[in-house]
Amino acid sequence: MDKKNALRAGALAAGTTLMMLLMSSPALALTPDDGDDPGPGLSVIETLGLFVVAPIGLFALIAGLVMVLDRSTDREPKAKAKA
Question: Which of 12, 13, 43, 69 has its CA 20 to 30 A from that of 54?
C-alpha cells in the first residue's frame, strides 16, 4: 500500500468517525421521546453484576464447557523420534 492510498484511507476513516460522533450526539437524549417510560435506575451493585460479573461468568462457563467437551486427540504431546 503506497503512501497516497494510506493517506486516503486514514482521511476516510477519520471523516467517517467524526460524522458518526456528530450524528450520535448525547445532547439528543436530553429530551424524552413520546412513549418513553424509564424504569427505576440500577444500583452500583446491580450495574457491576449486570455489566461485569455476568459477562465474565458467561465467558468462564462457555470456556469451561469447551474444555470439558473437547475430545480431540491431536493435542497430546508427540513422542520424540530416537535417532
Answer: 69
Sequence letter at residue 35: G
pLDDT per position as a tens digit, 18-51: 998 887 766 666 777 787 788 899 999 999 999 9
More confident residue, 11 or 71: 11
Which residues touch 42 (CB under 8 Å, ≥6 apart)?
50
Helix%, strand%, coil% for the chain, nearest 5: 65, 0, 35
| Exposed/middle/buried for residue 83 (C-beta within 10 Å: 0-12, 13-18, 19+) | exposed
Q: Is the separation of the CB atoms in 50 and 42 below 8 Å?
A: yes
List the one residue out of 54, 60, 34, 33 whose CA is nearest residue 42. Answer: 54
Residues in the chain: 83
Q: Please give the distance of CA 16 from its chain centroid, rounded to a whole number.
A: 20
Q: How far is CA 39 from the centre of its chain?
A: 26
